[in-house]
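Q: What would this complex look like in 3D?
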Amino acid sequence: MALRIDSRAPGFEEALARLLAMKREVSQDVDEAVRAIIADVAARGDAAVIDYTRRFDGLALTSGTLRIAPSEIEEALARCDAKTLAALETAKARIEAFHRRQRPEDLAFTDDLGVTLGWRWTAVEAVGLYVPGGTASYPSSVLMNAVPAKVAGVPRIVMAVPSPRGELNPLVLAAAHLAGVDEVYRIGGAQAVAALALGTATIAPVAKIVGPGNAYVAAAKRRVFGTVGIDMIAGPSEVLVLADGSANPAWIAADLLAQAEHDTAAQSVLITDDAALADAVERAVEAQLKTLPRADIAGASWRDFGAVIVVGHLAEALPIVDRFAPEHLEIMAEDADSLAAGVRNAGAIFLGGHTPEAIGDYVGGSNHVLPTARSARFSSGLGVLDFMKRTSILRCGPEGLRALAPAAIALGEAEGLDAHARSVAIRLNR
Amino acid sequence: MALRIDSRAPGFEEALARLLAMKREVSQDVDEAVRAIIADVAARGDAAVIDYTRRFDGLALTSGTLRIAPSEIEEALARCDAKTLAALETAKARIEAFHRRQRPEDLAFTDDLGVTLGWRWTAVEAVGLYVPGGTASYPSSVLMNAVPAKVAGVPRIVMAVPSPRGELNPLVLAAAHLAGVDEVYRIGGAQAVAALALGTATIAPVAKIVGPGNAYVAAAKRRVFGTVGIDMIAGPSEVLVLADGSANPAWIAADLLAQAEHDTAAQSVLITDDAALADAVERAVEAQLKTLPRADIAGASWRDFGAVIVVGHLAEALPIVDRFAPEHLEIMAEDADSLAAGVRNAGAIFLGGHTPEAIGDYVGGSNHVLPTARSARFSSGLGVLDFMKRTSILRCGPEGLRALAPAAIALGEAEGLDAHARSVAIRLNR
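A: Here is my prediction, written as structure tokens for the whole assembly.
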């Protein structure tokens, strides 16, 4: 049974604060191991990557076989079943169409002093996409990371995916192929992150690394940050469902369990103004758990981190939602739109009973890489802007410079930066 | 004398690679001290902040005097000279006008399946702005950080600025007042970053912290990242000037020195296709250094990190510029616009002889917080988007869900996430 609390009961604020402060991740101290691996890849390049791959993945490679050949990708494609491939194509087309609308516009304008100002957006020159091996090797995540980079115009997209004992998920390779990934390497862990960031004889360095990974991958990304850009470090996934008595309890239960099946550290929360709905959802969760293949994982997540919060009125729930800043927010209520308009902090909002989060995870078109662990208070889901950067552009003519010079000189002098002031003044002496 | 290299001479690539790999910052190992300070502020709140302020700033405070009272800010304003205040107002108005154009638009569209998709941008709920004390306490930086946050619609902007032995730069308080900062605290260092991120009895926590600082501040920002958002960790500043024989060597020298006076670790680089211009610039730098108040700093920067690169043709310079990915790029050449169009990596570009970087530092209107240390390869200058986040929104009706269900179910099953597939399928059984 998940935690159940009621906003009208004594001790509610304390119970809510405890729920919000819950640590769902055990932080593994792998930083020293990761530091050594990165230093070794910096020093020995391919040879170090090959050594670690032998040790951690049980796979013997050479510089010539680090990269997965195009022919292997074709073979993998041939092994995928047609229905799944078609689903991947649907997903890819919808993700691409959505993200095309995120492409930013350049700007140039001339102000009343004749000064031209603006900016230009350019794509990051090369991006590395990390894909975990094993059970967390999701083809949908390949699309969600690679398609926005492609839409941004990144000219070189490189993927690293470990293949423990040589095993690779053919759907991951199919997704990479569909998304237009340019190079795929069969390496993983901190050694792959280091190779992407620093480059080796075989792998040219990239400028930014994105994608989820285990504790080693996360620690390596933190360490190479600065040398390259990185995306957010993803934590365990979470969903918050906001529902009134009009909602279907079995559907809510299914969505709570879809979140919970990801990971024992995932979190599913229901907030409702209807205690009877809360009861019905709790019963439906227990019933559905009985036939779920990943019931162990989902059950542990629901027991340890799940919560049902009953409030007097749904409007009261909005400040609670903003404090959770959930990665995923589902709203199943009569006035879903106006409730949504009152939310400040959420990675993605799914409106109405016919929008299960799983649609957004796969084929809605919006990105499923979203801010976790309350970081929606200050960050956004992955998008095209994460693969572009903005260069500001300024041009003064002699008149514009003359008009702005007094203020610039005054500020330079006030800050004790005389060479700044002089670099402006010298242009007036003609 | 700065380094001089020629692209047509043997060993050029090696010399350029060495220049690019130069480490300009000595990394201070303050992480353990910072960890302890943050833990102490987490445990003891105000009392810890007050203790560290007494120890590091020689200033005795109470919970009641941590915050700078509005009356003190009014007094500081009265002490500023009118010319400098007017210059700050000019700067503020231009920064605001420029950044208003960066406000992003929300989107909502309905696709051919009747699915509604889009996103909504919202401001970060509270932002902390760190301002260094002492000589690096720049009022222009207060404007550059606070104005975009205000334009973004951040409802609460909090500033922390240390006042060693009680001293405060009145222009910094004036800039905060002008920019609409809501609360100002006279605290600094890791203790200020911790107080902003974690909150104390007196200081409510923020969701994002921006602004430059010393090694302790930088280490503290890295440590609280995740709990709050942070901006880039700024390194020493740099300028790259790209010039042909038409450029004025004295103006170029003035700009190189304006950069160099910031810090002995700053870097000023000239790339030109005209060896005679290179000679003239070198002579002008030496001549101008003789009368510069900060000649010691500027001279050391130019000697240790300055460089003059002569190339056969300016078009050859573009790949070199992209490898530097300079924070500031000035182009003084006949075909400045077409050269600028060929640049991928730069924080800001200043076009033509009448656009010294100092104009952009103060009153151009674009932001002077720009990516350093080659990070313009993957990141942008500070802007309105840094104070907002995007929530994606999805709504399916029954028909849209029915159309998308097969692909979503296929992918859920292919990824071994049956509860995902079931959360879609359960909605079809009606």
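A: To summarize the key features: The mean pLDDT of chain A is 96. Chain A touches chain B through 117 residues (CB under 8 Å).
Q: Very helpful, thank you.
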